[in-house]
Amino acid sequence: MSIIDNAIYTMLNGKRTITKPIFIKDFDADNKQLNDLIEISKNVSPEKRRLIEKDIKLLKQGLEGEKNVYYELKNSFLPMLCLYDIRLEYDDYIAQYDFIIITRKFMYVLETKKLSGDIEITKDGDFIRIIKSDNGKIIKREGMYSPISQNERHVKILKEVLAKEKLIKNFPIKSAIVIANPKTIIDKSKCPKSIKNNIYKYDQIVNLIKKELEDKSNERDLLEKFLYNIADYLISNNKPITYNYAAKYSLDNEDVKIKEEPKKEQKNNNLGSDKSNDKAQIYEMLKKYRLETAKKENIKAYWVFTNEELNSLIEKMPKTKEELLQIKGFGQKKVEKYGDEILSILNKRG
Fold first, then answer.
1. CA–CA distance from 50 to each of 34, 35, 37, 270 (Å)?
2. How many CB atoms sit inside 10 A of residue 19's CB?
3. How many Å is the Cα radius of gyration of the chain?
4. Among 85, 103, 221, 342, which one has the highest count of C-beta atoms within 10 angstroms of its own C-beta?
5. CA distance 151 to 155
6. Is there a contact between 84 and 63 (Cβ–Cβ < 8 Å)?
7. Cβ-Cβ contacts under 8 Å for 245 (sequence gap 6 or more)
């Protein structure tokens, strides 16, 4: 926008606050499914362990790919809201989203793929995976389900949900497939233009979003409050999947029992119980402080700190501003603004 446009926007709506990527739901490498599978694999037969370890490997590859995309988005310096790992259930629809990007001009749904081997896309739009040996010889060519079709379906679901909830009207929601493996070569020379324009390497995605933001032909300029309303809805309606490990791997009750000995020991230990009660009390005090501060400043509660940042505070219990700065999400400005009160609560002096 021009200087005049920005001045008018500020006069009517207040200062712009989305000046860089803000992860409303952040990337977390500490994946519960991965942790569960690792724990279960310790207690099963060798045959079942091989199946589980194969899925562990695939899951790790997927997380590594998502981490690559997250790094690019986080360091893009673009004004946008970002959400990682959102799963919606709405009427008869279910859709899993790797990344949802919300800007004042459009939204993007990013589907990440950390594929092994190279990818060839035919003139008919079919995806062929090519597996090669170490010396470059082709071992196998196999078809794969089109990620384009999959993500376009997810985009349609998101459009319908947000429209029915009256959160958007005629607002562009775009689709992009992000190949997150730096070693993968994509041959798009023969594929239809509609596919070619929807598949990117992870190091190209920031330039794509930047180019779209700078597009003069798109005159949309959604107010920030509406961007946050969309993000709020998606966060509130995120329904993480519950995995049925017993059915998938034909496990019995003992197989799927996740060990919780440390928790049991803590319950039987008076000192541990006291500490647990203290942390629960501090947790509630921090939530109360966050709510009161948000109301006082007329902002969203997660602007003060998100639930993930709240959990990190309870887990790490920083005692100084230097320690607080080490916690993900707490930059210099946030610590300067809220640090004293947070530390006061953590040290139970408030």
1. 15, 16, 12, 41
2. 10
3. 23
4. 342
5. 6
6. no
7. 36, 37, 40, 251, 255, 256
CATH of domain 260-346: 1.10.150.80
Q: Residue 314 in contact with residue 11, Cβ under 8 Å?
A: no
Domain boundaries, the chain: 12-245, 260-346
φ and ψ of 132, to 5 deg: -120, 155
Q: Are 32 and 258 in contact (CB under 8 A)?
A: no
Q: pLDDT digit string (tens) for 85-132?
A: 999 999 889 999 999 999 999 999 999 988 778 899 999 989 998 988
**Which residues, 6+ apart, have CB-to-CB distance to 283 below 8 Å?**
310, 314
**Strand order from edge to edge, sheet including 93-102:** 21-25, 80-90, 93-102, 107-113, 173-179, 199-201
- With residues binned 3-state (H G I as helix, E B as strand, rest as coil), the percentages for the chain, rounded to 5, are 50, 20, 30
Q: Are 110 and 176 in contact (CB under 8 A)?
A: yes
For residues 270, 274, 275 and 281, what is the CA-based torsion angle, rounded to 10 degrees? 160
Nearest Cα to Cα of residue 85 among 34, 51, 38: 34
Instruction: Taking residues 287-314, report their average pLDDT.
Output: 86
Tokens of 318: 């920083």
